[in-house]
Design goal:
By secondary structure, the protein is α/β, with parallel strands linked by helices. The strands form two sheets. Strands 6-7-8-3-9 form a five-stranded parallel beta sheet, sandwiched between helices. Strand 4 and strand 5 form a beta hairpin.
């Protein structure tokens, strides 16, 4: 899969933004296997960009293409197929189901298009320090725990692109490094790309491309 942005700009940003950004107003092709870091200060549209790329918001001018198919014209069924097999995401606000257990949150995602078995899910949870929370309701978990659960959830499916929207905002450096290590391993197994948007550089993300939003 190939992901392309072309002259993209949120409708609520002025045209002047294109001159200051390495993303807005440009044409960029993201290929499988790349590790892309996007440094995005507060207010620069980081979350908007991730939502645009995932196809859940369309308040932009320009275009986004999945394998030369515009997100503006892709039908909902085809877009759903892309999301279940080729594009995964870690949302900044996690979006766990609060009244479901942690394991149910992970299983709901896994069973849509299984990539790992249940034992692997438990191994990942132990590795990121949330193994003891699998039977707990999502709403009872701390923000840091929810963030790690959201990261594991994103790895339950096949993907060519993994989109990360400030995935470590509630984690200390050690837990963030563990989570990043896991995501890098999973991306490598799939030959996949990571597009990682955050406020600043992170030393333990070995990016191959760097852009300033």
């Amino acid at each position: 899969m190939q992901l392309t942005i072309r002259d993209l700009l949120p409708v609520y940003f002025e045209e002047e933004r294109k001159k200051r950004s390495e993303i807005w107003g440009k044409e960029i092709v993201f290929q499988r296997g790349e590790l892309t870091k996007i440094i995005a200060p507060s207010g620069s549209g980081k979350t908007s960009l991730m939502h645009f790329l995932y196809g859940i918001r369309r308040e932009y001018t320009g275009d986004i293409l999945y394998d030369q198919q515009s997100l503006r014209t892709i039908d909902p069924e085809t877009l759903s197929g892309f999301r279940s097999s080729q594009v995964s995401i870690v949302f900044q606000d996690m979006r766990l189901l609060p009244e479901q257990t942690v394991m149910e949150n992970l299983e709901i995602k896994r069973q849509l298009n299984p990539y790992h078995n249940e034992d692997k899910v438990r191994q990942m949870a132990e590795r990121l320090g949330v193994g003891s929370k699998l039977a707990s309701l999502g709403r009872t978990c701390s923000y840091g725990e929810q963030q790690r659960i959201a990261i594991i959830r994103s790895l339950m499916q096949p993907f060519d692109f993994l989109l990360l929207d400030e995935p470590f905002s509630h984690l200390d450096n050690r837990n963030a490094e563990k989570a990043m290590e896991l995501m890098l391993e999973e991306a490598a197994v799939r030959g996949a790309s990571i597009i990682f948007a955050d406020l600043e550089r992170i030393d333990f993300f070995p990016f191959t491309r760097l852009f300033y939003l």
